[in-house]
Design goal:
Keywords: EGF-like domain, Membrane, Signal, Transmembrane, Transmembrane helix. It comes from Dreissena polymorpha. This protein is mainly beta. It has 1 helix and 32 strands. Strands 1-2-3-4 form a 4-stranded antiparallel beta sheet, with no helix packed on it.
Length: 464
Amino acid sequence: MATIYILGSVIICGTIAVQGQSSCSDKCTYCLGTRCVSCIDGYYPRGKGCVQCISLNCRTCDTSDVCTSCKSGYFGASCANPCGNGCINSTCDRNTAQCQCTDGFYSAYCNQACAAKCQDVCDKTSGVCRCQPGLYGQHCHSNCWSRCAECTNSTSCSVCQAGKYGPTCNIDCNPVCSDGSCDIHTGLCTKSCPVNCNDCVDGDNCTSCVSGYYGTKCEKPCPLHCLDNICGKTNGHCHDCIHGYSGVMCHVSLCPYNCLSCIGFQCNSTGSKCTSEGLCINGCVTDFIGPSCERTCPTHCAPVLNGSRCSSDGVCYNGCVLHYYGSWCENACPAQCLSVGTENRCVDNGTCREGCIAGYSGERCEHRADAFLREDSKSASTAGMVAGSFFGGVALTIACGVIALVVWMKRKKPTPANEYYNTQTFGAGNEASKPDQPKSDAESNYTSLGGNQEERHTYSSLDQ
């Protein structure tokens, strides 16, 4: 199907591939004449057809085989890494792998399953949950004392087994209590009230609940982040929240998303993940750094078996992914370096490990072959100009030397002496007087000098 595209003032005619009706090659979705311009997912255009991306998980890639987007469920520069098992729709951020978790999973990458012995859904950031009866701890890994029905630590019980009361449930209830139940704190009979009732009417309608519960029968636990585990009996609204949380149910975290709630099994006694300034107390979730866990490890850090890929200053622990180098893996090996097997194309300073692809040279393959030819031609032309200038200068110097020598020799030759004589006329016929002619017959021809006139003499030069 022919299509006209207008780009600025340029009109481009092309063809959109329609099965059985287009001149475009297989897997090409748009072509200009016989040249393919765009391809189906997983391929990129080259000449008349399409070439498969280097990674099967690439949705789109460019001509240098670099993935520009990944198929659903994968992330990374080469789309080689699967998203966490608990990511909603198996979709995660291509660069950071972060995603939103389904119920039963937690962490920034939703790759951690909630503890199997959680009584309900765990916190999707920290994994903390309310444990099944008889267990406690962040992951419900510890057993309560044998007399406890429920507990939150190793030193006291929050609910006793039937017929017991006291902090460690080591005291027997009064035998007169109906069904042997009594208040855990006072030992007073509860009149067969539901568990967690302080007092009740008609057997199952609680008038007040023990700390940490609410509802008609005190059957619902208070929200996890209520201060001192206290909430309203009717609606469960927290009277106040632990630091770092807000909302009527204290469900809104004010701390940075990537702050850790605990370090191993040791949790902050306040229950908060951050200080009032927003600084993370227990460190960051995997692959995040900074006082507020606001930065991620460099994109091209190589994976590690457990924990973060980089130190607090961003230096990669396990080096770089293939074809990158530098402390922060911020530098890509030159594209013209020759690739051999699974080794990096270049060493730590960017020098190509196995030489260059055809047409390039240099330690980093930065020189093109035709650039050397132009440089050689330019060098030959420059050498000719230099040689011409040199020999021209030599010739000019010799000529100047010869001229200077001639001038010097002429100046050295003696100047001839000049003799002068007084020109006189003798006799009326202006004939020169002969030697034997008497001087008395001669007449001198003088010019009268009057006033301030200067005397003038006429001389003839006699060359020797």
